[in-house]
Amino acid sequence: xxxxxxxxxxxxxxxxxxxxxxxxxxxxxxxxxxxxxxxxxxxxxxxxxxxxxxxxxxxxxxxxxxxxxxxxxxxxxxxxxxxxxxxxxxxxxxxxxxxxxxxxxxxxxxxxxxxxxxxxxxxxxxxxxxxxxxxxxxxxxxxxxxxxxxxxxxxxxxxxxxxxxxxxxxxxxxxxxxxxxxxxxxxxxxxxxxxxxxxxxxxxxxxxxxxxxxxxxxxxxxxxxxxxxxxxxxxxxxxxxxxxxxxxxxxxxxxxxxxxxxxxxxxxxxxxxxxxxxxxxxxxxxxxxxxxxxxxxxxxxxxxxxxxxxxxxxxxxxxxxxxxxxxxxxxxxxx
Length: 335
Description:
- This protein is mainly α.
- It contains 14 helices and four strands.
- 58% of the residues lie in helices and 4% in strands.
- α2 links the parallel β1 and β2.
- It starts with a helix and ends with a helix.
- The mean pLDDT is 91.
């Protein structure tokens, strides 16, 4: 379509918002992104509650994608904004189009990464089992293990060098983080999980070294370039090795690790809770009713709870620099 066509559509969306008695129009990439951005915007601007309009001009799959959103960049203002996933492009391309007023991006890779933050995961576990689990330590350890793979991926992105994309890509991160093939049956099995992930990271890096033409180039990447990348991420964006999991492809983290792991850990914590109840209430004739209630609560659907977990993260927003960056920008720019 022509530039004029997009301008006409933008004007139509603004008019639709006005007729719907809404104060602001918000363009997102996917229909599933609406709830994420609505919660964040209303958290910053409570006066916009029930006054946000999400235009429905999408394709048959219910998506737009960044390439379409970019077409509307010329028509945005404080009443017509764009919200999208960063895909971490801003880390290797300083000229990305979405670094601009009235355009808001996730800072981490995608909205799915926010669902994998330790605070919401801990809260979900407590709501299902009344017991806590140290997700912070777990995720930080996994992030450190996977960080060399991420740094190499970022190195090639910065160079715009695509020859090794078949080795280091979203699918590779998904395979590395796949917890289904790892025996995790109790709290003491963390070490087994870490070793499984580390082994898969080393395997990919070994394959990379084998296919590179120059061994000295591979060595220099790890001796010099990765060190420089790590320093740059720390100094420019305050991204530490233990944060890296938030910057990997979100669906790899959520679908391949967090969701299946949460099912396992909830089952383990539920069993632990039931054992505690059996010991504490061994003489209580109503003990079976108590155990049934514990089992019923723990049966709640993990996927659904993960999809609505942003509400937990907003409770902790002041402690989360990535959410806070989005909130600060919205507060500055939206009247």
